[in-house]
Structures are given as C-alpha cells and as structure tokens.
Amino acid sequence: MDLNIRVAGEAGQGIKSIGVMLVEAFLHQGLHVFSSQSYMSRIRGGLNWFDIRIADRELFGPREDVDLLVALTAVGLEVLRETIVPRGRILFNGPPTEGVTAIDLAKTARESGGAIMANSVAAGAVFRMLGYEPDRLHEGLRRQFAAKGEQVVGANIRCAIKGAELVGTTSGHLAAPPLGQVAGEVVSGATAIGLAAAVSGVKFVAAYPMTPSTAVFTYLAQVADQYGILVEQAEDEIAAANMICGATYAGAPALATTSGGGFALMVEAVSLAGMLELPVVFMVGQRPGPATGMPTRTAQQDLLFVLHAGHGEFPRAIFAPGTHQQAYELTRRALQAAHRYQTPAFLLIDQFLADAEKSIPKLDATYRPIDRCIVNADRDYRRYEPTESGVSPRAIPGGDAFVVVDSDEHTADGHISESLQARVEQQDKRMAKLAGLKAEALAPELYGPPVAPTLLLCWGSTYGPAREAVDLLNDEGHLAALLHFAQVWPINEAAARERIGQRRRVIAVEANHTAQLATLLRSIGLIGPVEHLLRYDGMPFSGPRIARQVRGD
C-alpha cells in the first residue's frame, strides 16, 4: 500500500503547514512517511507543492504521480491535474468543478474557529478522504497547538471536524495503507546534519545564508543554547570561511554551511586551511548552477568543484550522504576525519535531501563530542613536525607551546621559508595524510543481487530513488543492483573494483549533465565507458522514472 498526497498552491498559503500537520499525524498512526517539496524562489505567489507519501513499508524517495491532490488555487488544479493517477481524487479550495471535491477552506475555518485555521480544515478533509478516523488527527492537533492553550487547540479540532464532515460522502474512496506500528520520528536531512554537528561537539558555526544550506544553519541556531554553540551570520561567505579557520586554530570544532555559489567565494580559505592544516568542515548544499542558477531546486553539480577547490595540492575527505541516517552519521565522520588528519573535510548534500522528511528510528541526541586530537606540548613544540603518517601533534594556543602557523610555505616550527628542501619536506608530509584517509575510506554500498547483469552507479541523494528503481526492476524480472558511494573522496578503490565486477550494463544515475561521479571513477581507472541516466531540470529522481529509463520505455 503506497499513497501520495500533494498539497499545492501559492507561496504564503500555508502549504507547508498543512504538509507538516499531515506528516506528524501519519507518523503517529504508525505509517512510514516520506515527504518532499517543490517551491519557487519567491515569498508570495507562484506554484509550490508539498508531497506526503505514506506506505506500510519503508520509503526511500518521492513519487511523481499523485493519488490525492489538494489544490489550494485554480493554477495548482490546472497544472497538476495531469499528475493524478486514474483512480485518484482531488480536493479543491474553490467553487464546484467537475471531477473534484470542492471546499472553501477559509470560509469553513471562519465559521468554525478562524480563517487562520484553514489548514486544519484541509487536514481533516484529507483524513476523511483516506478513510482514517478523524480522532487520530485530533491527537496530533493537540500536540501541535498545546503551547497555545486549550482555546486554540479546541478551535483547530473543530475546524478539522468540519473539514471531515464536508467530504464525508467521499470517505473511503482511496485505498489508504492500514495503520501500523512504526516508531521513531520524522526528520529532514538538514535536521539530521544539524543534530549530528551539535552532538559531535561543534562549537562555532559561520555562514552567509544561502538556500538550501540555510536550514542546517537555522537548526543549529535553534539548539545553540542547548549545546553551547556560537552561531554567526557573517557579512559574506569569505568572512564565514576565514572565521572557521580562526576557530579551529584556537581549538574549537567549527562548521561552515553554504551552497555552490557561496562556496565559490570560500575556496581561498579552503586552500588556507590546507596549508595551515586546520580541521575545518564545509557543508555544501548543491543546487542548479552556474551562477545563481535555480536557487530552490536540486542538483548534484558540485562534486568535481569541491574535489578540486583551492589552489595547490592538499588532501581532503568528501562525504555525500544518501539517506537521513547517513546524513547524521557522515556529519560526525566528516568532523572526526578533519580532526584526525588536520585537513579540510566536506559534506555534500542537495536541496532534495536537505528538505525531504522521512520516518526513521529516533536519532541519538546525547552529547558525544568527537576527539579533537589535541596534545599538551612544551616550549620545544614544532607545529609541523614531519611524521610518517603526515599528521603532526596538534597543540592549540594558550598553553606552554608556542603555536606558530603561516599561510606561506614554512619549516617544521611554522616559520615562513623559501627553502626548497623545506618545501619538499612539508608537501610530502601533508600529502602523506592521503594514505590514512584512503585506508579509512568507506566502501560503496551494494544493494540488490550481487551478480545482477545491470548495475546502477550513484552517489549522494540519488540512493533512495535508485534503490526503489532496483526493487521495481527485480520485481519485473530485470535483474539489477545498485552501487552507492556515500564517500566520494578518497575512493575505497579495492572495494569499488570488486563490487563493480564484470557487468553487462553499468549505468551512472546522477543529477547533473556530465556524469561527474562516472568521470571521477573513470579518472582513477575503476570504470570504462558507461551509460548515463541523468536529470538536471532541478527536480529529484523517482524510482519509477529510473526504472522506466533503464528498461528503455
């Protein structure tokens, strides 16, 4: 059982409020939930929508077709009507129209408690159209509005009851998933990253707000007092990047959140961190470019940019989570890798993963700071002491050690030098860290029959849709498997080579125009020519779309 509900209308109409209300209600009814958003870069008007997908099994991605369309505007009805499945239903906030169930949400809300509560009317109507008992929704409304007092709670419940009554004759027309026993919480990718950073001991966050990274930044601001974090909205991205360099030099785990266009301004500081050997972490939320591109849409276009960002050569680690659990786990891993190897680390996400919400087991909110790998040192301390691993003992200012750093090439004690011998010694030392990073690199995850003749290659957020595509293809008798890279640099080459193996078809599934992961894998000799299954219109993949394209439909 799998149902997709789409709430569509103008920005400013409370589309997200209805969606969040339904997501929470469905979660507490024991259903698996996956929600995603499509919105324009504007505060008012346009056409936005919020999808809530529910099922009796775990969900990993969105659907493009719709079982129930809640159209708050005539434009939403006109544009999205063609996405309705043959037996789907439409709830329209407007005059009676052929083939729809019409309600004047604002008028109904005014009569039952207040126009501002139109969202509760819509939620009650949706519950009834799915055949669920409205009382189940009322429990969620009580939780959601408890802080506003019993009067507000009661008014919202009355509005939900009225919405259910007005569509009473249509109840049960949609085959909705049975209520289950799913436990946990619904979180977005941005929330998972923010929580992981907080519990891992991040003490300083700097950013110039830029969609879609802003959601992580604002989450950390909300929990700043709880976890003891200083959150700074810098005057620009250049300042934000240099601030986290200063913070890590002083010993504070630090994070900068940005998007592709903002990261373009940060690359000089990235190179600075490479020379100073600072454990900085950058979270880069990808969106379509070049330039400002499509600010509120999704893409996977910055992999090679982040891999090569910064002049000169220095080691780095790049992680690209594919699920909400990975977003939580890899944020911590990126922070720990940066501190263990004293070099920049990156977390690559995108608008789709940042905004998508999924029901998952409750994430651990216990404060568990990473090991900053800091040593106590005496007056003979040398910050850049050559070692076999390339990792020098790291002390921070304020103790007995005199901690000297320099953005120019330097000697082991940190003082500027133009000695050719010192240059070779220090560059060899820095690059030696890559061996340790490679030894710890995550193996790509293989999903599906290990010897399937068709293999989908993907990275980051395409994991969920590609996984659902593999399930669809195997159910139809088309044997296929998926190889997902959650760490895209350095690559665990031995594991990747073994799992790619000998296949009849290898297909790179990526949200960009040039198949950047395939380009990277080819550059290190892991693959030859492969097929490309690409999407770059700003919308996320879905499992059925990938399956159709693999079949050649």
Structure notes:
With 553 residues, the protein is of the alpha/beta class. The chain has four domains: 169 residues, Pyruvate-ferredoxin oxidoreductase, PFOR, domain III (Pyruvate-ferredoxin Oxidoreductase, domain 3), CATH 3.40.920.10; 172 residues, 3-Layer(aba) Sandwich (Rossmann fold); 67 residues, no CATH class; 107 residues, Rossmann fold (3-Layer(aba) Sandwich), CATH 3.40.50.920. The protein contains 19 helices and 20 strands. The strands form three sheets. Strands 6-5-4-1-3-2-14-7 form an eight-stranded mixed beta sheet, with helices on both faces. A seven-stranded mixed beta sheet has the order 9-8-10-11-13-12-18, with helices on both faces. A hairpin with a 6-residue loop joins strand 2 and strand 3. Helix 4 packs across helix 6, helix 7 crosses helix 8 and helix 10 runs parallel beside helix 11. The radius of gyration is 26 Å and the shape is globular.
Strand content is 15-25%
Shape, per Cα inertia axes: globular
Tell me the number of strands.
Answer: 20
Uncertain runs are none
CATH architecture identity of the largest domain:
3-Layer(aba) Sandwich
**CATH superfamily grouping of the largest domain:** Thiamin diphosphate (ThDP)-binding fold, Pyr/PP domains
Number of helices: 19
In short:
With 553 residues, the protein is α/β, with parallel strands linked by helices.
Structural key phrases:
553 residues; alpha/beta; Pyruvate-ferredoxin Oxidoreductase, domain 3; 4 domains; 8-stranded mixed beta sheet; 20% strand; globular
